[in-house]
Specification:
Elements (H helix, E strand, L loop, with lengths): L7 H12 L9 H5 L9 H13 L7 H4 L8 H12 L5 E8 L2 E7 L5 E8 L5 E9 L6 H10 L3 E10 L2 E8 L5 E2 L5 H14 L7 E3 L2 H4 L14 E3 H10 L3 H11 L3 H9 L13 H9 L5 H6 L2 H11 L23 E2 L1 H14 L6 H7 L13 E4 L2 E3 L2 E9 L5 E9 L6 H16 L5
Helix pairs in contact: 7-10, 7-11, 7-15, 9-10, 12-14
Amino acid sequence: MRHRAIGIAAILSLVVALACSCGHPGPPPAEAAHGARIDTNTPQGVRAKQTVDMLNSDWPIGTVGVRTLAVPEKVDDVAAAMDRLWWDRPIAVTGIDMGASQATLHVRTSYGAAQDIELRTNDLGLVDRFEVTLQPPPIKNWADVDTELTKSGARYSYQASKVTNGACTTFAGTNVDESLPLASTFKLYVLLAVAEAVSAGTMNWDDPLTITAQVKDVGSAGLDHLAPGAHVPVRTAAQQMISASDNMATDLLINRLGPGAVERAMVAAGHHDPALMTPFPTTHELFTIGWGKPDLREQWQKASPQVRAQMLEQTNSRPYEPDPERIRTPASPYGAEWYGTAKDICRVHAALQAAAVGRAAPVRDILSAVPGIDLDRSKWPYIAAKGGNLPGDLTFSWYAVDRAGQPWVVSFQLTWPKYRSLAAAEWVLSIAKQAFGMLPVS
């Protein structure tokens, strides 16, 4: 989605505001609303305040506005960094450190993540260095996890489970039975269906999958250069589906597996309510319902299971055309998502590991190719991972084996009523890493 550049009227009003030092008693209302007062008697102070004003404006961040802030060669980088912050507004300033030609803004996002914005100005007073750094919240115990996630305003679930003989036992967690959006974590069920088909001999890892124009509609993270008619081996598609969360690869696999295969995998994995995702939607089908034209969200929300099945089938008769007005708005409030509980996530991870034998043994390597978290590998020699991110919905999950050979599953699910930037994922990861540190690993 391309964002509008900041308008000329907004730029003019911003310049007037920056130029005016009218001696008001205390900070103006907008500044007071956004936290600590910023002195503007130095170039770096001016730019610090301009940064905060732009981040809290209703005008999207664009290169036109950023050109009034940064040197030409840094405009694109600064615009990208500010755009991520802008989506998480309001941004509150909790403190500011001033130095020679530089300023560090200590800020907090609308969901409670602490970040530092470091900027430096050149001789002309323009920003030539701009860096944003997350400050991970200190997590000393499991109650701290709940405190941070509660402050975020999200509905959430997290769980740390010990896996013994394929069975999950909760070690710590909150809302572990609450069914929440899975985002791309649903692809674990697709992989399980693939593993079962390979074991049964109805699918081979080197079987070719034919790319179609329809599956290309949903985008691809690593196979987008391939044209309709090209072929991708099952093994490559499975790897891309897990490592890069590739939607095109996912739909290729679901279509090759045929009707009912993923639903059967859900039952085999012990999903608490497979009917929630029966028939199991492809990404093309669900994206068309949630973010495509025409707007089908309210119709989907009110529809019976039978009508929903018909709606999914009807989406296959037309290309997926994203609606730019809704592409960053959550669809899960209307029920357009894949769903599961923390216990479901643990069970499907355990089922995948149990299935990864014989012809399906490559599943272990597929799941662990990208661990998705920076842990001490001498402590955690095997890490399988799958996460997901859709507007408003964020999930992470890991099946990790400690050095004593004990498997654990750790998962996080958060859902907000509005879009969150990828900075939210970095924030959750910082909590998850500390959660691993609280597990009793010798």
